[in-house]
Design a protein that fits this description.
The chain has 268 residues and is of the alpha/beta class. It has a domain of 182 residues: Undecaprenyl pyrophosphate synthetase. A six-stranded parallel beta sheet has the order 3-4-2-1-5-6, with helices on both faces. Helix 1 packs parallel to helix 8. The longest helix has 24 residues. It starts with 12 loop residues before the first helix and ends with a helix. The structure holds 3-methylbut-3-enyl trihydrogen diphosphate (IPE) (2 copies) and magnesium ion (MG). The site of one 3-methylbut-3-enyl trihydrogen diphosphate has 11 residues, from strand 2. The site of one 3-methylbut-3-enyl trihydrogen diphosphate (IPE) has 11 residues, from strand 2.
Length: 268
């Protein structure tokens, strides 16, 4: 599939060329995670209410999803709502729920046509039934798609994820199904809600904040960070390309020394 038209436009020749160059220059991250931040400040800077920023952020999601799929990213995980975000003013939470339902409803068909699989991680049972049903329907429809996984982190927090994994493992130990010695790094990973995907290679945070805000705490152990001052509603594919280019320039040493990495590369 050459073009994805999630926003109703076809990919320009110049854009295809930029993507081709990016693929030739280096590795495309398999898994990209994004902390989509700065919607409220974006709206405020324009004299609007916070929810306007959330609405404007939908176009950034579209462009990012589209560009990632075209580039060959296999998993895109978007932090859409954290466990802590439930503590925001009720009006904002309600508006976000409405926006979530509307967006899933309007985007699912296009995701499906473009062979994109929608998934979700987090405490989904905390959402109103309308949200859960809309989400479940979209997940069911796109289940068999294989071009890219678009995973929404909803009422997600890294500590919650580690806690729920620990509970499941503890139950198995208590029932004598596994020994405490069987609890390894790998076993913990397979009990996290992200068990079916590789750890993110690249994480992008918009709006210039230098923090994880309880996102994928365990999974980000060796993820490369890219932080941009751009507010999420202004984020477009050009910035994604910059982040990937920056990622391609990094040396991922995983605790080793540079010489080991270079000699491994030459043995390939
Ligand atoms: C991110 O933007 C969206 C969500 C957390 C739901 P914010 O709403 O956090 O916007 P700022 O950071 O207050 O500007
Ligand atoms: C992180 O943003 C959560 C999402 C983007 C969904 P926040 O705006 O909630 O994070 P803090 O409060 O600035 O750390
Ligand atoms: Mg924020």
């Amino acid at each position: 599939m050459e073009t994805v038209t999630l926003n109703g436009t076809t990919q320009t020749e110049q854009d295809s060329l930029i993507q081709k160059e990016l693929r030739q220059k280096g590795e495309i991250p398999q898994h990209v995670a994004v902390i989509m931040d700065g919607n409220g400040r974006w709206a405020k800077s324009r004299g609007g209410v916070r929810i306007k920023g959330h609405h404007a952020g939908v176009e950034s999601v579209r462009d990012t999803v589209e560009a990632c799929a075209q580039l060959g990213v296999k998993h895109l995980t978007l932090y859409a709502f954290s466990t802590e975000n439930w503590t925001r003013p009720q009006r904002e939470v309600n508006a976000l729920m409405t926006l979530l339902v509307q967006t899933i409803r309007s985007e699912t068909k296009k995701l499906h046509e473009n062979d994109i699989r929608l998934t979700a991680i987090g405490q989904l049972d905390r959402f109103p039934a309308k949200c859960r049903n809309q989400l479940a329907e979209a997940i069911r429809l796109t289940k068999g798609n294989s071009r890219m996984e678009l995973c929404l982190a909803l009422s997600y927090s890294g500590r919650w994820d580690i806690t729920q994994a620990t509970r499941k493992i503890s139950e198995k130990v208590a029932k004598g199904q596994i020994t405490p010695e069987a609890v390894t790094d790998e076993l913990i990973s397979t009990h996290l809600v992200t068990a079916d995907k590789p750890d993110p290679d690249l994480i992008i945070r918009t709006s210039g904040e230098f923090r994880i805000s309880n996102f994928l705490l365990w999974q980000l152990a060796y993820t490369e960070f890219y932080i941009t001052k751009t507010y999420w509603p202004d984020f477009r594919r050009d910035e994604l390309y910059k982040a990937i280019e920056c990622f391609q320039g990094r040396e991922r040493r995983f605790g080793k020394v540079s010489e080991q990495i270079v000699s491994n590369e030459s043995e390939k």
